[in-house]
Amino acid sequence: MAYHLGAKFPNFAAKASGIDGDFELYKYIENSWAILFSHPNDFTPVCTTELAELGKMHDEFLKLNCKLVGFSCNSKESHEKWIEDIKYYGKLNKWEIPIVCDESRELANKLKIMDEEEKDISGLPLTCRCLFFISPEKTIKATVLYPATTGRNAQEILRVLKSLQLTSKTPVATPVNWNEGDKCCVIPTLQDDEIPKHFKNEITKVDMPSKKKYLRFVDL
């Protein structure tokens, strides 16, 4: 099964760093947003820089009612030893993000996030750098796949979350290079006579050569 946008993200129970007993995803998320992010392997350079940065930004995600969940095919023992390196590199006093252990690769295969080109010393494939943005209703709102050689931009992860949260409750879309506080696009399906019900600020319409009135901006 492919987990496409709008699909229900599967619940699962597994071992995870910092958790006694099994970590259960839905129980951990409760009614918050969540981002599950996989990394290829513990004790590797790019992964260490990524998790250190996410550790620094953890409070920013929590303020947005979003819980972070790490994931790889390493053991719990490996995760917990590696976390000490992450804390050292990132100058972190604490680490509060659970990192799920999927040594059997069962869940990674189910989610289709294995990278057949990247293998561990035993020749087994590793997980790619995947992101699943999960809504409070447990549906997938966005996914991103990166290869092992390309580290993710933590600020972009935060920006996407803010866009998803905004557009989930307001009839807008966020345009190119949007950041919080910038103008948004009014969604094309919203008719002009419906605009006053949703926006108090004036709408800016762009006159296009096609004469179609689809490009409408608004300050929120």
From TrEMBL:
<dbReference type="InterPro" id="IPR019479">
    <property type="entry name" value="Peroxiredoxin_C"/>
</dbReference>
<dbReference type="Pfam" id="PF10417">
    <property type="entry name" value="1-cysPrx_C"/>
</dbReference>
<dbReference type="Pfam" id="PF00578">
    <property type="entry name" value="AhpC-TSA"/>
</dbReference>
<dbReference type="GO" id="GO:0006979">
    <property type="term" value="P:response to oxidative stress"/>
</dbReference>
<comment type="similarity">
    <text>Belongs to the peroxiredoxin family. Prx6 subfamily.</text>
</comment>
<protein>
    <submittedName>
        <fullName>1-cys peroxiredoxin, putative</fullName>
        <ecNumber>1.11.1.15</ecNumber>
    </submittedName>
</protein>
<dbReference type="GO" id="GO:0045454">
    <property type="term" value="P:cell redox homeostasis"/>
</dbReference>
<keyword id="KW-0049">Antioxidant</keyword>
<dbReference type="GO" id="GO:0033554">
    <property type="term" value="P:cellular response to stress"/>
</dbReference>
<dbReference type="InterPro" id="IPR000866">
    <property type="entry name" value="AhpC/TSA"/>
</dbReference>
<dbReference type="InterPro" id="IPR050217">
    <property type="entry name" value="Peroxiredoxin"/>
</dbReference>
<dbReference type="GO" id="GO:0042744">
    <property type="term" value="P:hydrogen peroxide catabolic process"/>
</dbReference>
<keyword id="KW-0676">Redox-active center</keyword>
<dbReference type="InterPro" id="IPR024706">
    <property type="entry name" value="Peroxiredoxin_AhpC-typ"/>
</dbReference>
<dbReference type="InterPro" id="IPR036249">
    <property type="entry name" value="Thioredoxin-like_sf"/>
</dbReference>
<feature type="domain" description="Thioredoxin">
    <location>
        <begin position="3"/>
        <end position="166"/>
    </location>
</feature>
<comment type="function">
    <text>Thiol-specific peroxidase that catalyzes the reduction of hydrogen peroxide and organic hydroperoxides to water and alcohols, respectively.</text>
</comment>
<feature type="active site" description="Cysteine sulfenic acid (-SOH) intermediate; for peroxidase activity">
    <location>
        <position position="47"/>
    </location>
</feature>
<dbReference type="InterPro" id="IPR013766">
    <property type="entry name" value="Thioredoxin_domain"/>
</dbReference>
<dbReference type="InterPro" id="IPR045020">
    <property type="entry name" value="PRX_1cys"/>
</dbReference>
<dbReference type="GO" id="GO:0005829">
    <property type="term" value="C:cytosol"/>
</dbReference>
<dbReference type="GO" id="GO:0008379">
    <property type="term" value="F:thioredoxin peroxidase activity"/>
</dbReference>
<keyword id="KW-0575">Peroxidase</keyword>
<keyword id="KW-0560">Oxidoreductase</keyword>
